Amino acid sequence: MRKMLMVTTIGLMAACFAVSTAQAETYKLAISLAITGPTSDAGAPYAKGVEDYVKYANDEKMLGDDMIEVLIRDDQYKTDVTKRNFEEFLDEGIPIYLNYSTGSTLALKKDFEEEKIATIPASFHAGNLVDSNYIFLPIQSYSNQVIALSEYVVENSKGGVPKVAMFIHPSAFGRGPVEDTKGAVEKGLKMDIVEVVEHGKDLDTTATLQRLMSKGVQYIICHTVQSPVAVLLKDAERLGIVASSFGEEGKITFLGAHYTGGNDLIDLAPTASENFYWTTGYTLTSEPGPGTDLQLKIAKKYGRDDKTANSHNYTNGMMVTQVAIESMRRAKEHGKEINKETLYDELNAMNGDNAYDPLTTTGPVTFSKDDHEGVDKLQIYRVTDGVFKSVGEPFVPKYVVKN
Fold first, then answer.
1. How confident is the model at residue 4 (pLDDT cuts 50, 70, 90)?
2. Topology of 142-274+380-395 in CATH?
3. CA–CA separation, 226 vs 262, rounded Å?
């Protein structure tokens, strides 16, 4: 009798274990990005941020017994490779997708619509949202970042209407904010855009800087990536025209949007980057706070070096993954299946009392059917003694553009 009871008990335990195992699900998250090739200086740490937060979510059992598997592919910034990767990811049954570049996000926009899959890219190009229902920008668009910098110039410049030049990437990524910023000027932002410069691949911007100085330019707002900005700053330093204080007469004050700054810029132009003004919607590890604590904890847990641990691109990759996994967690909490439809609905409901604070951003993530730009607030940072430090409080641009 006792032997039979023991066998029955073991049998019941085995059955319960089998049911528990059968109930546990594995959900796939995927991203295609430039781990090598152009912009890999951003893509490589970004990929590590994605990978590490998935590990952290699994270790912390954010989805209970369910697990998340992340598929990370290198596309070398090639749109045709990104498209092929995306199609293969769909075959894996992904319920949400993380994309990277502006070019591939624009090229795959119709695919996202046809597949009805929510997509969170690394590109903050405002044009991503035009005629799109399924693309969600993590933070304010590049256009609104450049407008925020322009507003800062206007509010803090002395001596009449400030003369500004724009230094941009020769692509849709770079050109996107130009017309929106000109639109803000037409609506009343008192700033004179003297010239828009699309940089090339040359390693000398001396002639460009001398021409802008001859036109009385006091400020250069950059919208590109770190490398050409570093060249610009080092040439300006050599010419002795980098302003040591904001709006210094006879000198140029340099400012930039998200991908122009961060610790990589300081590494590339150590002394020339001093007093560079920069804006983003992400918190930096150079500022103490819960976001910094979380990021450094995760980086240490998964063995990342200091350069990666303190990269804002690592933060960026981590944050988009936070949003994706939070949509999964909420769907599960609400008793829904985790699929493309439910995650799309959960993202659109992420507002008001349901806004999401990932700690890694300067404000909460808020999405709705009519607003697919996540974090509304931007922070101005300035390089001070070789470190980016915040200037003032996070704010929303007055001339904000909504698509």
1. very low
2. Rossmann fold (3.40.50)
3. 8
Output the six-digit token pair for 359: 């700690």
Q: 387-395 and 253-256 as β-strands: parallel, antiparallel, unpaired?
A: unpaired
pLDDT attached to residue 16: 45
The sign of the CA dihedral 99, 103, 202, 258 is negative
Classified as helix, coil or strand, 374 is strand
Q: For the domain 23-140+286-371, what is the CATH superfamily, name and number?
A: Response regulator (3.40.50.2300)
Q: Write the pLDDT tens digit of every residue in 343-361.
A: 999 999 999 999 999 999 9
> Of 67, 71, 23, which Cα lies nearest the Cα of 47?
71
Contacts of 349 (CB under 8 A, 6+ apart): 330, 367, 368
Closest to 253 (Cα-Cα) out of 206, 216, 221 = 221
CATH 3.40.50.2300 intervals, the chain: 23-140+286-371, 142-274+380-395
**Tens-digit pLDDT profile for residues 7-59:** 334 343 444 444 444 588 999 999 999 999 988 989 999 999 999 999 999 99
